[in-house]
Design brief:
Layout: E1 17-21, E2 30-33, E3 52-53, E4 56-57, E5 65-72, H1 78-94, E6 98-105, H2 110-119, E7 126-130, H3 134-139, E8 143-144, H4 147-152, E9 166-169, E10 172-181, E11 185-188, H5 189-194, H6 200-205, H7 211-221, E12 223-225, E13 228-231, H8 241-250, H9 268-282, E14 298-300, H10 306-314, E15 321-324, E16 336-346, H11 352-362, H12 368-373, H13 396-404, E17 406-408, H14 415-431, H15 436-453
Parallel strand pairs: 5-6, 5-7, 16-17
Antiparallel strand pairs: 1-2, 1-6, 3-4, 7-16, 8-16, 9-10, 10-16, 11-14, 11-15, 12-13
Helix pairs in contact: 8-9, 9-14, 14-15
Length: 458
């Protein structure tokens, strides 16, 4: 049965391990699945029998070299699983010397599974990774540096990759990003037309797409039914620390200095950025509505949401969707926060070269069609690749502009505590129980404490 079905040996999501066999005739790979559980040693892979020739039986070819990979597949959508099946198939077709063994995991289970297998004496060659886990994996000795591979590879060089496309810690590269999350602006262009407003794309073309323009449009677009918002002008998420960075950078501020030695939340520019955001919610009250239902004018959203745009907006011809990059701030800055997901090489990997080949495969042009199916492929780690667009309302030039201003998202070692504390501070400021000045001062003190006790990941 083919890769598309996902039906071999029952439901694909119940499989914990499977082996993709390379080395088939003509360079094509065949799929074999093996279901088993627990932190067992690497399973044996079955090689095809040697072929007979008129001159007798040829000696068997060398068995494909195993590349074991821990991936986050179980619990993901069927679209996600099928896309990765095709990525795996393309890899073994292009690398017949390798057998790719996939150990399935849920996304939440990757860190514990990697640690459990390591404790049992087994190290994966390739490990699914997130920027959120980087510090944990480095501390636990689960992954190794990619820098020697980047330095010695004849096909790629370190300079080929955006800095935001590298998962780095203390100047060491541990992963390359097959997944890059950023947030373009999407607009209900019918609502803009009805209000007599220029769309965000038109403002961008005229050089007038700024946060002031965002506020002006949001105020004009917002309508109310009594105290309730009937049509919301805008949806942004400054209560999340990664989204807060969009505003801090646009106002010329930052969370900490370049060396992550001192928190810098105590500047007037940082306070102004936070005040702007709080006012959107508490003073101007333009945040509300539902973009998917046609009751919202603008939303910042990752490209992973585009399949839902197609299913719930375009398919129903609900309204014309528009797109724009990030708005400019008061200082002209429009930096894009890029959060990466990549693949790591396990420390002590038996086949580090095979894992490196797999990592290069996941960030190559070869897999862009598969990545677009899951909302990726618009931002790429390799700066020489062009964004691949699918839908008519996407503008590749906007993606390219965002990539030019992309910056890697900084992260504290105690990021979860930071996330929770900032959300509580944000809620208090919006409710009015805490002033912006007090909230920013509180944040400065806490961030400095986290820097002093743990520092940053990057």
């Amino acid at each position: 049965m083919g890769l598309e079905s996902g039906e071999i040996m029952g439901s694909r999501t119940r499989l914990t391990r499977r082996t993709l066999l390379g080395g088939a005739a003509g360079g094509a790979g065949a799929l074999a699945l093996a279901a088993c559980g627990g932190a067992a040693a690497t399973p044996e892979s079955v090689a095809p029998p040697p072929a007979e020739t008129p001159g007798g039986v040829e000696p068997p070819a060398a068995a494909p070299t195993l590349v074991s990979a821990l991936m986050a597949l179980r619990g993901q959508s069927e679209t996600w699983q099928r896309a990765w099946d095709r990525i795996f198939a393309k890899f073994i077709a292009a690398h017949p010397a390798y057998t790719l063994e996939i150990n399935d995991s849920t996304l939440a289970g990757v860190t514990s599974r990697a640690a459990t297998f390591m404790a049992a004496g087994f190290t994966f060659d390739a490990i699914y990774g997130s920027w959120e886990w980087l510090g944990l994996f480095v501390d636990a000795g689960i992954i190794q540096s990619l820098d020697p591979h980047l330095a010695n590879d004849a096909e790629v060089a370190p300079a080929d990759f955006h800095d935001f496309g590298k998962l780095k810690h203390k100047a060491i590269t541990y992963g390359l990003a097959w997944q890059l999350t950023a947030h373009p602006f999407w607009s209900n262009d019918d609502a803009f037309l009805a209000a007599g407003l220029k769309t965000p794309a038109e403002l961008e073309d005229a050089g007038n797409w700024t946060w002031d323009a965002v506020l002006a449009a949001a105020v004009r677009l917002t309508t109310r039914d009594g105290a309730a918002i009937a049509f919301g002008g805008l949806q942004v998420y400054p209560m999340l620390t990664t989204h807060l960075l969009y505003h801090a950078w646009a106002w010329g501020a930052d969370l900490w200095d370049e060396g992550c030695a001192r928190a810098t939340c105590d500047t007037p520019a940082f306070a102004a950025a936070v005040q702007y955001c709080v006012d959107l919610f508490a003073t101007h009250r333009v945040i509300g509505g539902d973009f998917l239902r046609g009751t919202q004018g603008m939303v910042e959203r990752t490209t992973a949401g585009l399949p839902r745009f197609e299913a719930e907006i375009a398919a129903r011809d609900l309204f014309a969707i528009g797109m724009a990059p990030r708005p400019r701030g008061p200082n002209g800055d429009r930096a894009t926060v890029m959060t990466p997901g990549g693949i790591f090489i396990g420390a002590g990997a038996k086949n580090a070269e095979g894992a490196w080949a797999f990592i290069k495969h996941t960030v190559s042009a070869t897999v862009l069609p598969e990545l677009t199916a899951i909302g990726q492929g618009r931002f790429t780690a390799n700066m020489h690749l062009q964004p691949l667009t699918v839908y008519p309302y996407e503008n590749a030039a906007h993606y390219e502009q965002m990539a030019r201003t992309g910056r890697p998202a900084p992260r504290l070692r105690q990021q979860r505590a930071f996330d929770a504390a900032w959300r509580a501070t944000w809620d208090a400021m919006v409710e009015g129980s805490l002033t912006v000045a007090a909230g920013v001062a509180q944040l400065q003190e806490r961030v400095q404490g986290w820097i002093d006790t743990g520092g940053c990941v990057r």
